[in-house]
Write a structure and sequence with these properties.
The complex is a heterodimer of chains A (323) and B (553). Chain A has 323 residues and is mainly α. Chain A is 76% helix and 0% strand. The longest helix of chain A is centred in the last third of the chain and has 38 residues. Chain B has 553 residues and is an alpha+beta fold. Chain B is 28% helix and 20% strand. In chain B, strands 1, 8, 9, 10, 11, 12, 13, 14, 15, 16 and 17 form an 11-stranded mixed β-sheet that branches. Chain B has a 4-stranded antiparallel β-sheet with strand order 4-5-7-6, with helices on one face. Classes of the chains: A mainly alpha (323), B alpha+beta (553). Chains A and B meet through helix 2, helix 3, helix 5, helix 6 and helix 7 of A and helix 1, helix 7, helix 13 and helix 14 of B.
């Protein structure tokens, strides 16, 4: 087991390096030059073409963009390992502290959405399977189908309209972490974005759980448990759910990606100062250091989530051996 | 079983009906509780409410308090894009973030939308033409939010920092402090008409020297300390800024509001709902937007527009690219002008907020050039037959193939597609390109073959527009042909005093030679909830101090 974890960690590191290199190269292959964006039109008054070129060259050197790409990558990667993500070219802020601030928001909301999606997804799927064909199943299936098919931005706008604008129960926009201001307001601001972020993963989890539970319900050991007169709750939790969870756990790696990937849209709609919105803005302005840093952190989150998923298999099903 | 299915169906039906009910149009309300007053006034600028009492040179830049004003309340404003950088150092602030510092920081001078300059943190100024010296008399008894005094030494330090760390649009210095409140600024290039106006731009806001020197650059960048009517208490990059009333503000009786807050909100639906919500936390009172449909919709409901006739939209042919059919060809640009039915595009896309354009000089703020208000002046109007004739005279009787490249976000893609179709009617087959920001700058600064659809900022001083966008120095549009004659006209327009003839000639030269194809002028706006007074009629950075709510907050 320990060997397996070490091997997986090693491959995770390789994966992160690989992704860093790919992102580093890809973003530089995009057309455009961030130095161009650094020069407002007004700043060019009175400059000759040569002066302008010299000015741009100086800015390029200041940001280390005049070096060969492998050297740039090497510097950036070594600095990153030391916790220095560099400075935003276009906006001028230190990437590390800004990323930490924003990542705290995205991680907090994403984690809540993840927990919400697992708890309610499994609950909904299990109830749906046990009450197959009943009205509970019909409603749960309808909710799951909406979650899978409806675009998150549409759900978000509808919820803002109904709960924010019409009913005035929840705030329309804005967000701060609960420990950085009004706690109650923060909780009110959390409800809609977390629900929207969680809806699709919850629906997927519910569908997968329903399908797995239905499979297990028909197996011999469950029939035996029922025949032995076991109580429903005990049979479901001890004999059904535990055996049905493996494919559900597999799904969670993908759900982490869904939640953090979807944060860009949700953060824009709810005006949340998270990392998703920063990523989109930085991509559009070719702000290399910011995009690279966010890509690495999001890759790390996904990789670690998948590692945890793999390790959970063994905990849920002891028959699985790590070699 | 059957009954339960029926119940499930019934519940679903009730939920759907509830949703539909929730989505029906909102009812009317009072200005303070949502502002849906159902007005029908048009969106044509520059109509607006009567202007609030304005300071002028005769009042030394001080605005007397409005006797009808009501004190109190927090105004919440929205900008649509973030720069996400620190806002404490005016010379280092991202363009999209300049709004956040506006309530807290002030400049030596204030520039009105019509070009009038009034002193603000300065009390007066003089131009010494013999020595090329701008003499600035700093206003006494002005204090920064940290309690330190504004004087000539602090003004000099600020101007020196802007020179050293920023990239100011004006060459100046050295600066000499003559007395506690008088300083002299040397302008080596001599005066132009826009010289003093340059010191009124956002990059020339004054900040506390002591805050910077004692606490360091990073602290000053993240903790803005100005002299403005509001003190910034919280700024979260990419999210919002909150400020509270400066009780020691130098203008007696101002500001009226208790606080001003700015939010960054990119989503149109969220903006719309927040502006329609009743005033209070969770709503907004003002929205700065380029979305013409949104502007039209709100103005029609009685919301107040603060107009920004901000952008002149033009096509720039690649007149300096030897591989291009447009290369120094005076006919093709004019042919394109005759091929485009601007009125049709404007009717479909402009929502009454755009205006057709046939010359670079617009009556944007000051009609510097008499021709700018002449409706018959400029490039050819829509006439496909004339367009074909011009093509033939330009050596392309059967038309030609070209590319139409749109600057990201410059104008609607639908308008460009319509334009493509109009060009095809006269034989010009234009393929479309919609590059992202990076790709666009590559075309603009590296050169292109075809036409770029771009927008030009309408500077208050037309000569600045000419110099910024079309002179050789900036080489802003790389494939634009700045002939010796045009360059001489542009440089000649930079004199102090009467430069009218040079500007008129440069304006005429560009459209007579087909160097640009004016398309339309767009008016973006700041939309403000009804019942808010003291607003400027045109967009400016310095106005927060004069605003008041007619309701009790």
């Amino acid at each position: 087991m320990t060997n397996y974890i070490i091997r997986r960690l090693f491959s995770c590191v390789l994966l992160v390096i690989l992704v860093s290199m790919v992102i580093f190269m890809l973003i530089r292959m995009l057309p455009g030059d961030p130095i161009d964006l650094l020069l407002p039109r007004e700043d060019m008054i009175g400059l000759t073409a040569e002066q302008l070129q010299a000015h741009m060259d100086a800015l390029r050197a200041e940001h280390g963009l005049d070096r060969p790409l492998p050297i740039q990558f090497g510097y950036w990667f070594i600095n990153m390992l030391q916790g220095d993500f560099g400075r935003s070219i276009v906006r001028g802020f230190e990437v590390g502290p800004e990323l930490a601030n924003r990542m705290a928001v995205t991680l907090f909301l994403g984690s809540l959405a993840f927990i919400f999606s697992i708890v309610f997804g499994i609950l909904l799927g299990t109830i749906s399977a046990i009450r197959r064909g009943k009205w509970v199943d019909t409603v749960a299936t309808a909710i799951a189908n909406i979650g899978i098919t409806a675009p998150a931005f549409l759900i978000a706008i509808l919820l803002i309209y109904v709960f924010g604008f019409r009913l005035r129960l929840l705030p329309i926009f804005g967000y701060h972490l609960p420990w950085r201001g009004d706690f109650v307001q923060s909780i009110r601001q959390t409800i809609l974005p977390v629900f929207v972020l969680a809806l699709s993963p919850m629906a997927l989890t519910a569908r997968q759980t329903r399908s797995s539970v239905l499979d297990v319900l028909n197996q011999d050991h469950v029939r035996t448990a029922w025949a032995k007169g076991g109580r429903e709750r005990a049979v479901i939790f001890r004999h059904v759910l535990k055996n049905a969870l493996t494919p559900v756990i597999t799904l969670q790696g993908n759900n982490v990606r869904l939640i953090f990937g979807g944060s860009a849209i949700i953060e824009s709609i709810f005006v949340i100062p998270g990392v998703g919105r920063l990523l989109v803005d930085s991509m559009l302005s070719a702000d290399y250091p910011v995009v690279q840093a966010i890509a690495v952190v999001l890759t790390l989150i996904t990789v670690i989530a998948n590692l945890i998923v793999d390790l959970l298999y063994g905990w849920v099903d002891p028959r699985i051996q790590y070699s | 079983m059957k009954n339960r299915r029926m119940i499930a169906l019934l519940i679903s039906l009730v939920l759907c009906l509830a949703l539909i009910a929730a989505c029906t149009p909102a009812g009317t309300g009072t200005p303070g509780d949502g502002g849906q007053t159902g007005g029908t006034q048009g969106t044509q600028p520059p109509q607006a409410q009567p202007p609030a009492p304005q300071p002028g040179p005769e009042t030394g830049g001080i605005t007397p308090p409005d006797p009808n004003a009501r004190y109190g309340g927090v105004m919440r404003l929205v900008t649509t894009a973030e720069g996400a950088g620190p806002i404490g150092l005016p010379w280092d602030i991202a363009a999209n973030d300049v709004w956040f510092a506006a309530p807290a920081m002030e400049t030596l001078f204030r520039e009105y939308a019509d070009g009038t300059i009034v002193p603000l943190l300065a009390e007066d100024w003089e131009l010494d033409h013999d020595r090329n010296i701008l003499v600035i008399h700093v206003r006494p008894n002005v204090y920064f939010h940290d309690g330190t005094r504004m004087n000539a030494e602090v003004a000099k330090w600020n101007l020196d920092m802007i020179n050293e760390e920023g990239t100011p649009a004006l060459t100046y210095g050295p600066i000499e402090v003559i007395s506690e409140y008088v300083l002299e600024v040397y302008i080596p290039g001599g005066f132009a008409n826009a010289t003093v106006a340059a010191f009124a731009q956002t990059g020339f806001r004054m900040i506390s020297m002591e805050n910077f020197v004692n606490n360091g650059r990073d602290h000053a960048a993240n903790n803005p300390v100005g002299t403005g009517p509001f003190i910034i208490t919280e700024y979260v990059t990419g999210s919002h800024m909150r400020s509270v009333r400066n009780d020691n503000y130098w203008q007696p009786g101002l500001p009226y509001l208790d606080g001003v807050e700015y939010y960054i909100m990119g989503d149109v639906m969220t903006q719309t709902l927040a502006l329609q919500s009743p005033h209070g936390p969770g709503s907004i009172d003002s929205l700065r937007t380029h979305n013409t449909e949104q502007v039209r919709s709100f103005v029609d409901r009685g919301y107040q527009p603060i107009w920004v006739q901000s952008l002149t939209h033009i096509l720039v042919p690649s007149s300096d690219n030897p591989d291009s059919p447009f290369y120094r060809n005076p006919y093709l640009g004019r042919a394109i002008s005759a091929a485009i039915d601007r009125d049709a595009i404007i009717a479909a896309q402009g929502h009454g907020v755009w205006g057709a354009l046939y010359q670079l000089a617009t009556p944007a703020r000051i009609p510097h050039i008499p021709e700018s208000v002449d409706p018959n002046y400029g490039t050819p109007r829509f006439d496909p037959d004339y367009a074909r004739e011009l093509l033939a005279r330009g050596g392309f009787p059967d038309g030609f193939d070209t590319t139409l490249i749109l600057q990201p976000g410059a104008t609607s893609r639908d308008a460009i597609v319509a334009m493509q179709s109009m060009l095809a009617d006269v034989g010009i087959n234009a393929s479309l390109e919609f590059p992202e920001t990076g790709g666009w700058t590559t075309f603009r600064s590296g050169g292109w073959d075809g036409l770029i659809a771009t927008n030009v900022i309408n500077h208050v001083y037309f000569e600045n527009t000419l110099l910024n966008m079309f002179s050789r120095g900036p080489d802003f549009y790389h494939s634009f042909y700045t002939s010796d004659e045009l360059e001489a006209l542009i440089q000649g327009s930079m004199i102090f005093g009467d430069n009218l003839e040079q500007m008129r000639a440069a304006n005429a030269y560009m459209h007579d030679n087909g160097l640009i194809v004016p398309m339309w002028v767009t008016n973006s706006a700041t939309i403000v909830r009804p019942g808010i007074h003291g607003l400027p009629t045109r967009n400016q950075f310095i106005w927060h101090a004069y605003v008041w709510f007619e309701w009790e907050d």
